[in-house]
Amino acid sequence: MRHRKKGNHLSRTSSHKTALMRNLAAQVIEHKEIKTTHAKAKELRGYVERLITYGKKGTVHHRRLAFKFLQDKQAVNSLFEEVAPSFENRNGGYTRIIKLGNRKGDNAPISLFQLVGFEKISDKAAAKAEKDKKKVAKKEKAAKETETKAQESAAEEPATQAEPEAPAEEKEAEKEDEEKKED
Amino acid sequence: MANPKRKISRSKRDMRRANWFSSMKPSQLITCDNCGEKKLPHRACPSCGYYQGKNIFIPKNA
């Protein structure tokens, strides 16, 4: 009978499952969000929420309880110093699971496991959008400058005006190259 | 040993099998609020990486 048997063993022995949860929890605390199968994410949630509660209590005893599970000093430190203080005004629900779709190869449903308030990607996306905007603006600017230059050369104006523009354009071109390298 | 009393006729067999295919339905798709592409419900959009108005991941071919 399945009475009062909660949780998913994920086709592992008890020790194997504990080890898996330890690793995943330490990784979540280190990286703030991880991609894993939906079943593992759902199972992990309870462990991580419990750890964050330890972190919020913040006593030496709770530090030891957290270390007992995580077996990772760095993870415990970042849990108590960085992660838990940010959840001061939140009563539970510290984590978020978002379904991403199925994995190629074994068709396993994959989810994103996040610590609420530590989302990285939105910042990245905003930065990227700004970059793209800048790129477009630069291109337009460059196009305009070439146009004006062409007009100036057509009008046969003194070369002193055209000269200071040329190095600026070169610099912009260099910058664009750098950005491409970064991407 | 318990055994079937009658042979299953071709008609009966085929009637049983015919229901399997008609029971298969295409997966329900919804349009993404962000990019308008078709996507599976309750999942982050694979084409734009958004879910519930938030950017979750950056798609590779963006």
Overview of this structure, please?
The complex is a heterodimer of chains A (183) and B (62). Chain A is mainly alpha-helical and 183 residues long. Chain A is built from seven helices and three strands. Chain A folds into two domains: 105 residues, Ribosomal protein L17 (50s Ribosomal Protein L17, Chain: A); 55 residues. In chain A, a hairpin with a 6-residue loop joins strand 2 and strand 3. The longest helix of chain A is centred in the C-terminal third of the chain and has 35 residues. Chain A is elongated. Chain B contains one helix and four strands, in the order H-E-E-E-E. A two-stranded antiparallel ribbon of chain B has the order 1-2. Classes of the chains: A mainly alpha (183), B alpha+beta (62).
In brief, what are we looking at here?
Chain B: GO terms for molecular function: structural constituent of ribosome. The complex is a heterodimer of chains A (183) and B (62). With 183 residues, chain A is mostly helical.
Q: What's the topology here?
A:
The complex is a heterodimer of chains A (183) and B (62).
Chain A: H1 14-31, E1 33-37, H2 38-57, H3 60-70, H4 73-83, E2 95-102, E3 109-115, H5 121-155, H6 159-162, H7 165-182
Antiparallel strand pairs in A: 1-3, 2-3
Helix pairs in contact in A: 1-2, 1-4, 2-3, 2-4, 3-4, 5-7
Chain B: H1 10-22, E1 30-31, E2 38-39, E3 50-51, E4 54-55
Antiparallel strand pairs in B: 1-2, 3-4
Instruction: List the strand order in the largest sheet of chain A.
Output: 1-3-2
Largest sheet of chain B: 2 strands, antiparallel
Share of helical residues of chain B? 10-25%
Strand order of the largest sheet of chain B: 1-2
Assign an overall shape of chain B: rod-shaped
Show the largest interface. A-B, 11 and 12 residues
Rg on CA atoms of chain B, Å: 23 Å
Q: Distance between the terminal alpha carbons of chain A, to the nearest Å?
A: 55 Å
* Rounded Rg of chain A: 27 Å
